[in-house]
Amino acid sequence: MDPEPRVIDYAPVLDGLMARGTADDARIEGRTLPDVPERTVFRPAGTGGPRAAQAAARRGRGWWVMLRLLREPLVHFLVLGAAIFLLFGALDDTPAPPPVARLEVTASDAARLVSQFEATWRRPPTPDELEGLIDQYIREEVLVREARTLGLDQGDAVIRQRLAQKMLFLTESAADAIDPSEIDLAEHLESHRERFETPARVAFEQVRLRPETPADVVLAAVREGTVPDDLVEGSMLPEQVPPSTEAMIDGTFGRGFYAEIKGFEPGVWAGPVDSAFGRHLVRLGSVVPKRLPPLEEIRAALEEDWRKELGRHLAEERLAALTAGYEVVRPAPEAVLAR
Length: 339
Known about the structure:
Layout: E1 7-8, H1 11-20, E2 27-28, E3 31-32, E4 41-42, H2 50-70, H3 73-91, H4 107-121, H5 127-149, H6 157-172, H7 182-191, H8 193-196, E5 201-209, H9 215-223, E6 232-233, E7 240-244, H10 246-253, H11 257-261, E8 269-275, E9 278-288, H12 299-323, H13 333-337
């Protein structure tokens, strides 16, 4: 059996090592550490057992290594550098770089570009043409996003008007999915007769008088069937006008001409009537009064007009509901005009 190891109290030895900083030159009570026998176990005096002595020795060696590290200049440098780095990170006010924005051209976007191309050119685009369309779309999308970032869409009257139109269109388009009943169409036709009535039409003959010619003399002559050439004056105006509406007649002879002649007795010369070109004698021909067509004759136009009217009504209701969600503050007109 191996002899029992000799026990030496290591506390004074470690105190000397930590005070002097080296184990080779440690002088404790006139002895050096290398003179300690191989089988010597260091442990504090008064403790029992080899295991306790070994544990205490390990703890002592750990403290000694830590103190050695704390005295190293490199450790001081690393600790100081880490502190400076953390302080700089805490006090640095440099803004973080913005995240990269994602611009994705989806399959539906590409399909819409194809549809627009086909509507214009009546054929599908080639792969190269589609690549060009996508490039153009990306360029436009980048410019639009950057313009919004700069606030260029704010205060622009054209953009504001376009956005308002799109909002109204979204509401009005809901009426396209609604089919009117026969009662709806009949009531709409009765309420808006003027939209569907065919206007009255009149046909007439006319002669233009010379400025100095007495109208009654020429009127008497034409009623007897003769038109004295020396009393009338030729012009680019038609002598015989086919059945025409008020808008057509006033567009040719001047405003108010239709209103003057519509009450004349058909087949009888009358006048004079003033126009934008002078004085005229007029003889009415056929007179076609205004007429309201039956519902079946104008069903398609009536349904379209009914949907438009419903869309406008829905848009007004929607706008009123949206406006109710705002606290509207507006100036008095008098106060604004008084400035």
